[in-house]
Design goal:
This protein is α/β, with parallel strands linked by helices and about 325 residues long. The protein has 2 domains: about 170 residues, Thiamin diphosphate (ThDP)-binding fold, Pyr/PP domains (Rossmann fold, 3-Layer(aba) Sandwich); about 130 residues, Rossmann fold. It contains 12 helices and 14 strands. A 7-stranded mixed beta sheet has the order 3-2-4-5-7-6-12, with helices on both faces. Helix 7 links the parallel strand 6 and strand 7. Helix 1 packs parallel to helix 7, helix 3 packs parallel to helix 5 and helix 8 packs across helix 12. The longest helix has 15 residues. The mean pLDDT is about 95.
């Protein structure tokens, strides 16, 4: 696989392309022009960018107002602040009022690394899943990012799309079909399935490659669309694979794993199941990669987790 660009760069390039053809496309930022990779957007489309400063609640409220007048608004801010400080505005001004704002959470998960828990965003999926009338997407690579931004620009509904900071490996061919509410199978397998989202999809793929060398076939699914969610694909996978492991750069509370567990339980589907994410504890401090390694979100650690789950449930 080839190493592509950071998803944020693809976001900015795609928004620039869309904005150049449509004056109604606006980028609204909370002192995030640089970190959101929107410096060039501001240079070539200076009348289509709004800077509100470090005032995330104002960011969302103003974006909702602009969207209500027919503007296609992309509100860009660090995910940790966007989904916490501005939660009331997201709930009431965007979702309850049905204003089609595209909320772009940047530097999500533990991307800020050593800045610590104040800057980690491992709660955003949990809180936004609980709010009606918002689509939640977590792209795994440049292809999914480009497709998600184009979809959001063409859809008159609120979106939350979250990005990390690292360069991403290309997981898809350009002719892959991207649909809201539909996961994408990256790799087929029948022994164990990794259901992952965002930046954790590639470590899951690495684990599948390691397992294949040991004669174990592992399915890898990119669940880029958290809300709406591909229940059909999850249930199909549960029936075809011996075990399921969910992987997320998010708290184990309220995220992808608990969503999958709820769907399986409510459909009376029994399958060996494991959630890999950030546990409910004081998060360790370090670089993003050090934190992910500590919590087992690397190819080698995930392959060992899969072997353990399969061994414990060998007779299931």
């Amino acid at each position: 696989m080839n190493l592509g660009k950071p998803n944020l760069v693809i976001f900015a390039e795609t928004l620039e392309s869309i904005g150049s053809k449509d004056r109604n496309v606006l980028a609204v930022t909370s002192d995030s022009r640089g970190s959101g990779k929107l410096v060039n957007f501001g240079k070539i489309l200076p009348e289509q960018i709004v800077e509100v400063g470090i005032a995330e609640q104002n960011l969302v409220g103003m974006s909702a107002g602009l969207a209500s007048t027919g503007k296609k608004v992309f509100a860009v801010s660090p995910s940790c602040f966007l989904s916490a400080r501005s939660l009331e505005q997201i709930k009431n001004d965007v979702c309850y009022s049905d204003n089609p704002v595209n909320l772009i959470g940047i530097s999500a998960g533990v991307s800020y690394g050593a800045l610590g828990s104040t800057h980690h965003s491992i709660h955003d999926i949990a809180v936004l899943r609980a709010i009606n009338n918002i689509n939640v997407i977590v792209p795994a690579d440049n292809f999914e990012t480009r497709a998600a931004i184009k979809l959001a620009a063409d859809t008159e509904e609120p979106f939350f799309i979250k990005f990390g900071k690292r360069a991403m490996y290309d997981l898809h061919d350009e002719d892959t079909k991207f649909e809201l509410g539909k996961g994408i199978v990256i790799k087929e397998g029948l022994d164990v399935a990794f259901v992952a989202t965002g930046e954790t999809v590639y470590p899951a793929y690495e684990a599948a490659e390691l397992l294949e060398k040991q004669g174990i076939s592992a399915r890898v699914i990119s669940m880029h669309s958290i809300k709406p969610f591909d229940e059909e694909l999850l249930l199909k996978t549960a029936k075809e694979c011996r075990a399921i492991i969910t992987v997320e750069e998010h708290s184990v509370n309220g995220g992808l794993g608990e969503l999958c567990a709820s769907i399986l339980m409510q459909n009376n589907v029994s399958v060996p199941f494991k959630i890999v994410g950030i546990p409910d504890e004081y998060t360790v401090t370090g670089s993003q990669m050090e934190i992910l390694k500590h919590y087992g979100i690397t190819g080698d650690r995930l392959s060992n987790t899969a072997l353990s789950v399969l061994k414990q449930n060998a007779n299931v």
